[in-house]
Amino acid sequence: MERLLLGIALGICTALFWPELPPIWLGSAVLLLGLLLLFRYRFTGAVFCGLGWAVVFFNLQLGWLKTQHLEIPAQHELDVTVTQAYQKSDHQQLLVSAQQINQQAFWLEPTIRLTLNNNKYRLKRGDKLHILAKLKIPHGLGNPAGFNSERWLLGQGVTATGTISQLALTYQANHHWREQWLDTSRQLMHEFYQPELLMALIYGEQQDVDKDDWQTLRDTGLIHLIAISGMHIGLIAWIGMALSRLLLQRFAEKLPAIHWLIGMGFALLYSALADFSAPTVRSLIMLGIWVVLRLWQREWSAIRIWLVALAIMLTIDPWSVFSAGSWLSFIAVGILGIAGFLWRKPSMWQIQWLMTVLLLPFQLLLFDGLSVSSVLINIPAGPWFTFSIVPIGLVSGLLVPIIPALARFGFWLCDLQLHWLMSMLEWVQHWGSGWLSLSAYQQRMLFWSLTVWLIWRFTPVVIKREFGLLLLAICGLLFAGCESEPDWRVDMLDIGQGLSVLVSQGNRALLFDTGDAYPGGYNMADAAIFPMLDYHGVQQLDYLIVSHRDKDHAANWQRINQKYPQAHIVSSAKLNAETQICQRWQQWDWGQLQLTMLSPQNSSGGDINEDSCVLRISDGNHSVLLTGDVQHQAESELTTLPAGLLRSDILSSPHHGSRSSSSLAFIAAVTPKYVVHSAGYQNRWHHPHAEIVARYLHSQQWITATDGLVSFEINQNSIDIKPFRRSQPWYRQMDAWLVGDHPLK
Asked: Is 745 among the domain residues?
C-alpha cells in the first residue's frame, strides 16, 4: 500500500517541475494508462495516475483564463460570492468565488483575489457582488531571489487577481458564525500587547500581523510556532477526549467510541475556526485515520498514515503542491517519524537538531537563507509554546461564546507570554540578526555538502571500507558541478514598472536606479534589489547611480544608502550632500571595467526625463548602455557624439520603450545586439509600445514584465544570456501560454 500511495503523491508532485502544462487530452490518456497499469505494475501505475490527474485538474482549473482573454488589459463583468474578506487601513482584500464572468458560467467556479480600494462597503463572507474589475493571471516579480508570488497564489487555489473599479451589492449575508466568533475574540483582546499574533496563533488569522514581527520570528527560526499545525489539532482533540472522559464516562459502556468521536468533533470545530486551512485539513485527515484505526482495532505504521494523508491531500487539492506551508508542515511531521526511527525515545535536542538539518534544503529553496540561531532559541521556545502558550490559547478560544470572561483571562495569559517572548527576541535581534542570507553559490555548496554527508552517514561501514575512494570521487564530482562565475554580470531586474540594473564583478556591485515604492511599505529594494544582492554574494556596493528623480527610478535610494552607506552616489539630482551630479565625460575605472557618463551635458535638477544620467560600461570587448528615461531631445544630443562612442552590445531601452524615445537615429548609433525593455506587467502606458519593439527589429529583445530578470554573464569572448522565466517551470510562464506562444507554457 505504501508504494501505491507514494506513487500517487510523486506523480502529482511532478507538477512542480513540468516545463509546460500538457493538454487535457494527454492528461486523460496518462490517467487511463495508469489505471490499467495498476493491476500489474502498482508503483508505476500509481505514478501515472497521479501525473494524469494533476494534468487534468490544472487544465480544468485554468481553462477559463483563455476563454476570457486575460492577456488583454480590460474591464471584466463578474458575479461573485465573497469567501474571505480582510480589512486593511485603506482597502479591502477579498477572496471570491466567481459564478459568472462576462455573463459566462463555469462548472468549476474560479477563485479570484480582488482588491477594493475603498472602505465604503464593509464586506464579509457570503456577500454576493456584481462588479467590474481588471483581471490578470497570477503574476509576480520574475527574479531568482525574492518572494515567489505565483507559487503563493496558486498554493491558495487563486487563478486570477484583480482590482475592483465598480461594485454593486446584490445580496448581503448574515454574519457568519466564524466571523462573529472572531470579532468577539478581537474585542476580548482589545488593548493587549500582541492581539495580532494571538489571532494568528489561535485562529490562523495572519494577515494583520506586523511585518516587523514576522521578520523577527523568521530571523530567529520561530515562525513555524505561530502557524496552525498538527500540534493544535492534536491538543484540541486531546482536550475534547479529556472532557468526554470527565463528563460522559457513564455513556462509554453503551457507546465505546464516544470519547474518540467527541475528540474528533472538537478537532472539526477548531478546523472550522481556522477556516479549514491546508495544515488543519492535513492534520484532520491524519487524526481521522488514527481514530478509525483505533475504532477498528487496526495497527498502521506512522509512515503509512503519513503517506495516506499526503496522498489524500494532494488528490483532493493538487494546488497544495505549491503551498510552502503545507510542505513544511508535512515534512516536519515526517521528520518526527524519522527521529522515532533513529532513536527510540528522542530528546528535544535530537529532534531539534534533526529538524534543522533535514529542513535545511527546503528552507534554502523557499527563503534563500537560514536562521543560525533557530536551534538554540527553539529548544526553550518549543516546549514553552507546546505546554503553555498554545494549550491556554486554544482552550480560551473555545470558551469565547460560553464564558467570555474566562476566555479573556486565558487570552491575557497568552498575550503576556507572547509579549515576553517578542521582547526577548527583539533583544536578541538588537545584538545581531539570527538570519543568514546565502548567495546562490553558498546555497549550492551547502546543499551538496549536506547531500555528501547524508550519503556518507547512512552508507554501511562495509561499503565505506570497500568503496570509500569511489564515494569520495562521487562527492568530488558533486562539488565540481557548481558553476563558475563570469568575469562580470549585468542583471536587468524585474521590478515592475520602473528600472533597476545590477552590475557586479566578484563580490562588488554597481546599482543603476532603484525601482518604485508604494503606500503601505511595499518597495522594490526589499522585494527585489536586496535579495538579488544577497543572491550574488555582493559584499560591497561601490556605486549607486540614480538617473533622475522619477519615483519608478529613485524611490528607494535612501533605503539602499542606509544599508550600503559606503556607496558612491551619482545622480542628476542633489539627493544628499555627498551626491556627485552626473555630467558628460565623467569617467571612473572600476575593477576591469570603465564607466563613462555620456549624458546630460548639464543637469537642470533631475526633475525631468531629459536629465537622466546615461552610463556606458565597457570591458574593452563588450559594453552596456543604461539610459534611464531620456527622450528624443537627449537622444539627439547623444547621436552627435564621436562615432562608435554610443555603440553597445546591450541596451536598456530608453523610457521603458515609450514612443517618446528610441528614435531611429539613436538606435542606428547604438546598434545594440540585445535590448531589454524594463516595464510592468499590463502597465497602463502600454510599455514597450509595439512601434518601438518594431524599431529594434534587428536586435534580440526581452521584456522584464513577461521574461522576468534578464541576466547577461559576460566573459572575455562571450556573452551568456539567461532570461529568468524561460528556464522556469510552467506556472512561472503562464503569460506565454496565455498569448499562445506555446501550449500551456
From this structure: no
